[in-house]
Design goal:
about 210 residues; alpha+beta; Ubiquitin-like (UB roll); DNA polymerase, domain 1
């Protein structure tokens, strides 16, 4: 067992230390501006942005930190785009921006001034379904349906990517003919997670649309 520490506080030492602390605190409070003490953000915290959403121009004023996903759901009230992991790992929030699919939870709304954004609401309606939507219904490519909007958005983009010769991890060689195989589709759709496990049905739906468009 360690011997006890011989520790004593002398009255003079205590008073001297207390005075030094009081002087330092008083100096900081007089010289440090109030806004610096509260650590407020520098500059504007919000701004206006104009987005072309599903063919309609929408002018929004959003916090600079607002994601495109939250702007779509909360400011525009297009709730078809879902918030899943909010970390870009599940694909539920997939939309297309200028024809390219992105995870909208990883992109700030203010970054998309003038961009053309397409959500699930912009590709079809109950009485006029997009071919991919109809194929998902036909092949039961969903169970709970939460990931379905992102799955459909990605699926439509996947066929465009293959058609345009954009390589994936499976097909890296641009000079090679890119075939629409099960492996190719699975690889390109790997960023969209279905926790219900309807992958076989999703694959069947995408394959049918690919064959229709061939």
């Amino acid at each position: 067992m360690s011997p006890p520490i011989d520790f004593q506080i002398r009255r003079r030492t205590f008073l001297t230390s207390s005075a030094a602390v009081a002087i330092t605190a008083g100096t900081l409070s007089k010289t440090t501006p109030a806004h610096a003490q509260t650590r407020l953000p520098i500059g504007a915290t919000s701004q206006s942005v104009s987005l072309m959403i599903n063919g309609e121009e929408r002018n929004l004023t959003v916090d600079n930190r607002t994601t495109l996903l939250d702007a779509l759901r909360e400011s525009v009230e297009l709730t078809g785009t879902k918030k899943g992991c909010d970390h870009g790992q599940c694909g539920a929030c997939t939309v297309t921006v200028n024809g390219t699919r992105i995870n909208s939870c990883l992109s700030l709304a203010v970054m998309h001034e003038g961009d053309e954004i397409e959500t699930i609401e912009g590709i079809g309606a109950p009485d006029s379904l997009d071919p991919m939507q109809a194929a998902f219904v036909k092949h039961d490519g969903y169970q709970c349906g939460y990931c379905t909007p992102g799955q459909i958005q990605s699926a439509r983009s996947v066929l465009n990517e293959i058609r345009d010769g954009i390589p994936s991890h499976v097909t890296r060689d641009l000079t090679a003919t890119i075939e629409i195989t099960d492996a190719e589709i699975r690889e390109r759709m790997s960023g969209n997670i279905c926790r219900c496990g309807a992958y076989a049905n999703i694959l069947a739906a995408i394959t049918e649309v690919a064959e229709q468009e061939a």
